[in-house]
Amino acid sequence: MTDRALAVVRAGALTTVQDEGRPGHAHLGVPRSGALDAPAAALVNRLVGNPPGAAVLETTFNGCALRPRSTVTVAVGGAPCPVSVDGRPVAWGAPVRVAAGALLDVGAAVSGVRSYVAVSGGIAVEPVLGSRSTDLLSGLGPAPLTDGTVLPLGQPVGLHGRVDVAPQPRPPAELVLRVTLGPRDDWFTPQAVRVFTSRTYRVSSASNRIGLRTEGPALERALPGELPSEGMVLGAVQVPPDGRPVVFLADHPTTGGYPVIGVVRAADLPAAAQAVPGTPVRFVAVRRR
Predict the structure, then answer these.
(1) Sign of the C-alpha dihedral computed for residues 113, 237, 264 and 283 taken in this order
(2) pLDDT tens per residue, range 210-231
(3) In the chain, what is the greatest distance between 2 CA atoms, to the nearest angstrom?
């Protein structure tokens, strides 16, 4: 067995393999998937000398613990968290050398939701439709990690970064999402549209990789009945029967029948990936570009 591998000692609440996703397959019913906080995943890859598309690990809330079978360089970013090697604290947001057989422990997030772990050479599981990403909705890609999983690693291709700590955005205390209204805002009363773009919601604990669910004022429909299923895009804000907006994230379905009141700017979605339950959310209407 190759020594270019990583053994999972503690899988954590939800740790998945993610890369830049598999865009371009929505017509087949396949979501984009990929790292929810794409800038964080790209940064940790740069820190260990990987190309931007290399697969990393995305943890959720309480991290994970890993044991490499050969000496590797790792970097942890995204949600700030304690990081240790064989019980000794090491840097978060910087490249760290981990010897063969040593235990890398990525602790619980101090703030935010998702931390990203890059390993020199990248996680080299078999790609599906051009991506190594785990897709929780369709089941494509590798299954979420479990204790004892062994992940193959690729060969390092570049030198690791030389920084003390790489600056990264702080997880949001308030999530401000710029939204372009439509295509189905006319399915809601004018008052509901004003509520949507002026009142404060909060992130629901029911949020996941498929969508950021919200708690707050229900949006009143102007039109009864339901739409035929139509295409859904990343960032679409769908309003189910309970009237509370849901922002579609990377593992969202490619079609849906509930009306979409608006679409969030793609640049605002990485912050949504790090918004903990209870975080205030404001939707700010912007003009179409």
Answers:
(1) negative
(2) 999 999 999 999 998 888 999 9
(3) 64
Give the pTM: 0.96
72 forms bridges with which residues in the sheet? 98
Alpha carbon 209 to its chain's center: 6
Q: Specify whether the CB–CB gap between 76 and 116 falls below 8 A.
A: yes
Distance CA 181, CA 51 (A): 36
Whole-number pLDDT of residue 159 = 74
Write out the H or E segment, with its range, that includes residue 262.
strand 260-264
Q: How many CA atoms lie within 13 A of 77 on its CB side?
A: 28
Across the range 257-270, mean pLDDT stands at 97
Query: Who's near 147: CB < 8 A, 6+ residues apart?
Result: 8, 9, 10, 11
Percentage of the chain lying above the pLDDT 90 cut: 90
Per-position DSSP letters for 3-44, written without gaps between them: S-EEEEEE--S--EEE-S--TT-GGGT------SSHHHHHHH
Q: 273: part of which helix (H) or strand (E)?
A: helix 269-273
SS (H, E, C) 83-140: EEECCEEECCCCCEEECCCCCEEECCCCCCCCEEEEECCCECCCCECCECCCCCCCCC
Q: How far, in Å, are 112, 113, 203, 227, 263 from residue 280 at the CA level?
A: 13, 15, 7, 30, 18
Per DSSP, the three-state class of 196 is: helix
